[in-house]
Amino acid sequence: xxxxxxxxxxxxxxxxxxxxxxxxxxxxxxxxxxxxxxxxxxxxxxxxxxxxxxxxxxxxxxxxxxxxxxxxxxxxxxxxxxxxxxxxxxxxxxxxxxxxxxxxxxxxxxxxxxxxxxxxxxxxxxxxxxxxxxxxxxxxxxxxxxxxxxxxxxxxxxxxxxxxxxxxxxxxxxxxxxxxxxxxxxxxxxxxxxxxxxxxxxxxxxxxxxxxxxxxxxxxxxxxxxx
Amino acid sequence: xxxxxxxxxxxxxxxxxxxxxxxxxxxxxxxxxxxxxxxxxxxxxxxxxxxxxxxxxxxxx
Lengths: 227, 61
What we know:
Shape of chain B: elongated
Order of helices and strands of chain A: EHEEHHEHHHHHEEH
Order of helices and strands of chain B: EEEE
Number of helices of chain B: 0
Strand order of the largest sheet of chain B: 1-2
Largest interface: A-B, 56 and 40 residues
Strand content of chain B: 15-25%
Distance between the termini of chain A: 23 Å
Number of domains of chain A: 1
CATH topology of chain A: Glutaredoxin
Oligomer: heterodimer
Mean pLDDT of chain B: 59
Radius of gyration of chain A: 18 Å
Largest sheet of chain A: 4 strands, mixed
Number of helices of chain A: 9
Number of strands of chain A: 6
Mean pLDDT of chain A: 92
Strand content of chain A: 5-15%
Distance between the termini of chain B: 27 Å
Shape of chain A: globular
CATH class of chain A: Alpha Beta
Low-confidence stretches of chain A: none
CATH architecture of chain A: 3-Layer(aba) Sandwich
Radius of gyration of chain B: 13 Å
């Protein structure tokens, strides 16, 4: 892979932004691989993952429905088609050690994104979203239930009372929309979409090796540092 | 190919083929086919749409 990327300042933080949505299985897999790629580096602590909001379906209903029902309503097809596709990506996720339930729900993710922005402002944005993502795909969390979402936020270290205030308000709504607009300006047409140190961008989920290559381009690791 | 502008200039879109993505227009997520080698499809397009050897399927994102 050739690139005109300029190596990041020596030893300074490197921000990796990932535009994402909760219901997107590839965002789940892609973030996991990105974290694995960062984890292989001796300077892993330099890297800051910032999750950016990109609602795939801003018009999705607020009331959750089974993933298969949502698909059949919006796209037609047969239950068998949906089940086959779900099983394929389930197999891929499980092969990477990621739990993946076929009994997930589907609904509007706007409030999850608003809490993500609150969590980012407070610090544990990645921890919050990762926890929600992990439990959602494991089929253990209904993130469209405000009490369950607030409890998950508490588990990630956020004050539950403040999270409930955010959920009851319109706080961070503008920030969610601004993320989507910025993503669109960068050419985001699907997620995940990853921007490395504002120098390189990757559309879609890459392999762990490809993420590692991108990290190496913006922040080369000296040969002597590699274990 | 670039993807907008960063503080240091254009943000370069890297050449690695994505293995998958979810698309807000169709609402579909690309699913790898059983015999599809990961990241081996050079037909994958940078705009997030599938290449000729790829197929979109799957549940809503």
